[in-house]
Amino acid sequence: IMKNPVPQAASLLLEKLLLLVHVRPLPEGSGSGSGGEPPPAPGYYDTSCFKRGDLLEVPRTLFIHFGIYLGENRVAHLMPDILPAFTGDRRQIEQVVTNKRLILGVITKTASIRVDTVEDFAYGGSILVNHMDRLFQDQVLGSEEAARRAEKLVGATAYSLLWNNCEHFVTYCRYGAPVSFQTDKFCETVKMIIRDQRSVLASALVGLASIVCLGLAPCTTLPTILIPFFLWMAG
Questions:
Q1: Which helix (H) or strand (E) holds 129?
Q2: What Gene Ontology cellular-component terms does the record carry (predicted)?
Q3: What are the residues facing 14 on neighbouring strands?
């Protein structure tokens, strides 16, 4: 029995759309040895208010990046990265991920859960602490448990915009369930767009059928216009 290719094709299309909306490359010059402004100097952020196991969020223009604070100015976070697929040299992998490494990691679905300084993790963005706790309420694990889960997962991993991104990583560590609210929200938006497109297509087809069946006489003009219009409103 042949599998229906439509769901697979839809999933691939959705991931490509997510790539355009969900991924915002690091600023040029973020990689070691490249031009541009250097990352913020150590001490740029006041880490005295962070506790081991805290969930950190950095809002970006089109998405939010997440990490787990490990203490001593260290953050574990999941980053798309092509480099672990080619080398095991930790010195190279631990360098700040460049735009090219990030984008190729998304395309090839490879990533690493890495530990960086708060400055490299946030890269100048504002940081929210445990902002997601309100969504999970009684599901919050102990801070030490969250940190240990994050440390245990450090290393190369598969990457998926839909099923295994930085938000899945932190929600698993702090709440015990890998979920991604921003991905779910984007999927709902795509579904709405698809439904609207289907409504428009159905309206156009009914309109053409009305013209073919009823002709272009003045007495048929009104229903020819109204039928597609009400179908579009219902969609």
A1: strand 128-129
A2: endoplasmic reticulum membrane; late endosome; perinuclear region of cytoplasm; rough endoplasmic reticulum
A3: none
110-161: pLDDT as tens digits: 999 999 999 999 988 999 999 999 988 889 999 999 999 999 999 999 999 8
Tell me the backbone φ, ψ of residue 79, rounded to 5 degrees: -130, 130
Q: How crowded is residue 79: how many other Cβ atoms within 10 Å of its Cβ?
A: 24
DSSP 158: E
Active site residues: 166
Q: Which one-letter amino acid corresponds to residue 185?
A: K
- 55 is written with which tokens? 């969930």
Q: Count of alpha carbons within 13 Å of 7, Cβ hemisphere only? A: 3
91, 85, 123: which is closest to 107 by C-alpha? 85
Q: According to DSSP H, which parts of the chain are helical?
A: 5-22, 90-93, 99-108, 118-122, 133-136, 143-153, 166-175, 181-214, 218-234
